[in-house]
Amino acid sequence: MDHFPTNWGRPRNDAFDAYATYPIHQRPYNGPKDTFADGVQRTQQPIVTGTSVLAIKYKDGVMMAADNLASYGSLARFKDVQRLHQVGNYTVIGAGGDMSDFQYIQYILEELSIDEISAQDGHELGPIEIHEYMSQLMYARRSKMNPLWNSLLIGGFKDGKRFLSYVDLLGTTYSASTLATGYGAFIAQPLLRKAVEGREDVITEEEARKILEDSMRVLFYRDARSMNKFQIATISSAGVSISDSMQLETAWSFAENIRGYGAQTQ
Amino acid sequence: MIMPDMDSLAHPQERRFNPYTENGGTILAIAGADFSVIAGDTRQSEGYSIQTRYAPKVFRLTDRAVLAVNGFAADGNMFVKKVKQRLEWYHHAHAKDMPLRAIARLIQTMLYARRFFPYYVYNILGGIEEDGTGAVYSFDPVGSYEREACRAAGAAQSLVQPFLDNQIYFKNQEAAQGTSHPSHLPLETVLSIVIDSFTSATERHIEVGDGLEIFIALSKGRTLQGMESIRGLQELTVTEDGERLFVMRRDLKKD
Amino acid sequence: MFRNTYDSDNTVFSPQGRLHQVEYALEAVKQGSAAVGLRSKTHAILLALKRSTGELASYQQKMFRIDDHVGIAIAGLTSDARVLSNFMRQQAMGERMIFNRPMPVNRLVSSIADKAQVNTQEYGRRPYGVGFLVIGQDQTGPHLFEFSPSGNSYEYYAMSIGARSQSAKTYLEKHYESFADCNLEDLIRHGLHALRETLQQDKELNVNNTSVGIIGPMGQHEKPISPPGSFRILEGDKVEVYLQSMEKKEEAPAPVPAPASVPDAAPAPGSDEDVQMSG
């Protein structure tokens, strides 16, 4: 997974601004200059973006984490954005990528939930149904060459079964006991796999929380588009709960002992 | 990474949305006289990242037809879903399963219908024909297809296919004096060739590994002939007194 | 036969506030051979009486599979039933495509009831000439519904439709309280007893004229199917074991006649044949 959303859904080109250091308005113009060429403007690139989402399975269900930052290029633009969203009574969807597209997805899912509730017939949408719906939606939009520029994690717990899956702007889907989007796919996923794989039925809620917090701390140290303010969602037989925003203890004093980088000369 | 200079920013650069990606993995099918074996690994990856260690690429369509898909996973999953729904309609209309050669032609028309926005997927269809023979059909992404005795596709095609050419078609092998090469190999031999193919591909290709799923379709009346107790075998047969279908799951190296 | 000038257009009410065309459509359902449906805590089943137009003809199909989890039995115009059942199949497959779940049975029935309602209100249309019993299993357990051309749909513990279905209904009303805890074999026996009530004097249920549709765990006379518990239709030799299980019909006083409020009190001889499109 490419960690910068601007590059998602594009041919790889490591020669050009892989870390998106240039402000968005200085980006080269993409495509023909013909005024009459296209009647509609599609999403060609994400504008305000969220970074990693992490999720793991544990003994009682699924736990997810995402920070509260929405970036505008390299500018930390919005610092109180919730990227974990509850859908129905059994599901949480976490999003990286374009935040306006994510808000549109929240709107669509809200409509869907209202339709389902108003049928009043005892049927409810669980994580499996939400996952299938989202994968169809994302795949349909990519097939119209008008993608929703997100990578989503869908976690849930219904009928005694936990569920965790990934969907992105290409319609690619997969499921595993640990998942991470964006930069987290490189930095956090190896840590999560080491801590969780094979121990899904053993890990307690406290332990799961610690695993996610440790990974979020590493991401905050290493990912320039991240922030030390995040939320954790737990989905278990007790239902969905999304925590208030929290901060982690971090230490930077070791930095001055590092030699070989930056301004130090010895 | 090369830092871009200001000149390159002045030139317009093509950065259009690319609706495709490659998700790695390899699939393989071999036809016997009265059986067919269809296999695939279960790793799904993108670039250097393993997305998941278990994402099936081989799917049961009917008791006598199994489809393996490889390439862009989202296209593959959608394509399999659509084929299954077409087969469901066939079942509604005719109250029987679609024969293998008809499924093969159906797949070709469905792929070609998307000639100008293709499913970026290599398909291999394996199973039992109406005459009871084992069959393998292989397709390109836009629907060209042919019936073959064996085929490998995907990330490690270039590693596996030459091995099959040698072991199944006996290319570059001289039969012993006064004998000839067999035209069909027994199931036991085929299974060990399949397993060896995947362990070897796992060693040499980073996109292959984690798990192996092998489907075995047996012609009407044929048994496993002593291979019933083989490790990891499970029967999937649905209909009575028809073709029988088995799946065998093995671990591959996860590194 | 014609009642008055309010006959010809189904969008016009009669002075009594009735839609005559809709009521005639309900008559078409009564012309079809009978179908019976029952439900227990674990199973929902259908039983139907097949008719053939003569020695040389095959028996008319009375049951259709909609999806793994839904099946129907029909009474009335087979051709209309095929249109509606294809629509139901589309709906069910759409639900699997979009949500990867079996479509809730009540919503499936409502979707065809809504279609039927449109035909009772829009100019230039005619109501469907067929009624359904729908059985299905979803997240909320096994279900039995009736669909009728008037656009109504109801859920039932047990129900019958078609020719002389009132006799079957009488049997079901007498016994329905015991159905909830029945095993599959007992449930089918009750169903056959009810279906038998709809037969003409000299006729009997046999392997050729009886269809049984089942949803729920496999019974002791069945072989495993996939996916487990999905809709299956038993016909021919497979129903023999259940026919054998029936108890002899007690030669009770004359069966309860259908209420005479509806004008089918004097059906013409041979009028219980299935209505054909050509006829």
UniProtKB/TrEMBL annotation, chain A:
PANTHER family linked: METALLOPROTEASE TLDD, PROTEASOME SUBUNIT BETA
Designated name of the protein: Proteasome subunit beta
Keyword presence, Nucleus: yes
Gene Ontology terms: cellular component: cytoplasm; nucleus; proteasome core complex, beta-subunit complex
Record's function text: Non-catalytic component of the proteasome.
Localization terms from the record: Cytoplasm; Nucleus
Superkingdom of the organism of origin: Eukaryota
TrEMBL record, chain B:
CC terms in the record's Gene Ontology section: cytoplasm; nucleus; proteasome core complex, beta-subunit complex
PROSITE patterns, per the entry: PROTEASOME_BETA_1, PROTEASOME_BETA_2
Source taxon at top rank: Eukaryota
Signal peptide: none
Locations listed in the record: Cytoplasm; Nucleus
Assigned keywords, A-Z: Cytoplasm, Nucleus, Proteasome
UniProt xrefs under CDD domains: proteasome_beta_type_1
InterPro entries: Ntn_hydrolases_N, Proteasome_bsu_CS, Proteasome_sua/b, Proteasome_suB-type
A GO biological process held by the record: proteolysis involved in protein catabolic process
Main location as per UniProt: cytoplasm
Gene3D superfamilies: Glutamine Phosphoribosylpyrophosphate, subunit 1, domain 1 (3.60.20.10)
Similarity comment text for this entry: Belongs to the peptidase T1B family.
Function comment: Component of the proteasome, a multicatalytic proteinase complex which is characterized by its ability to cleave peptides with Arg, Phe, Tyr, Leu, and Glu adjacent to the leaving group at neutral or slightly basic pH. The proteasome has an ATP-dependent proteolytic activity.
Subunit structure: Component of the proteasome complex. The 26S proteasome consists of a 20S proteasome core and two 19S regulatory subunits. The 20S proteasome core is composed of 28 subunits that are arranged in four stacked rings, resulting in a barrel-shaped structure. The two end rings are each formed by seven alpha subunits, and the two central rings are each formed by seven beta subunits. The catalytic chamber with the active sites is on the inside of the barrel.
Protein name: Proteasome subunit beta
Organism annotation: Suillus placidus
Automatic annotation (TrEMBL), chain C:
Subcellular location per the Swiss-Prot or TrEMBL entry: Cytoplasm; Nucleus
Keyword Lyase: no
Start and end residues of each Proteasome alpha-type subunits domain: 6-28
Pfam families the UniProt entry points to: Proteasome (PF00227), Proteasome_A_N (PF10584)
Region Disordered, annotated ranges: 245-279
Top-level lineage group: Eukaryota
Keywords: Cytoplasm, Nucleus, Proteasome
Classification via SUPFAM superfamilies: N-terminal nucleophile aminohydrolases (Ntn hydrolases) (SSF56235)
SMART domains to which the protein is assigned, alphabetical: Proteasome_A_N
Single GO biological process annotation from the record: ubiquitin-dependent protein catabolic process
Residue spans crossing the bilayer: none
Example of a GO cellular component annotation carried by this entry: cytoplasm
UniProt-listed InterPro entries: Ntn_hydrolases_N, Proteasome_alpha, Proteasome_alpha-type, Proteasome_alpha1, Proteasome_asu_N, Proteasome_sua/b
Family, per entry: Belongs to the peptidase T1A family.
Oligomeric and partner information: The 26S proteasome consists of a 20S proteasome core and two 19S regulatory subunits.
Protein name as catalogued: Proteasome subunit alpha type
UniProt organism field: Suillus placidus
Taxonomic placement: Eukaryota, Fungi, Dikarya, Basidiomycota, Agaricomycotina
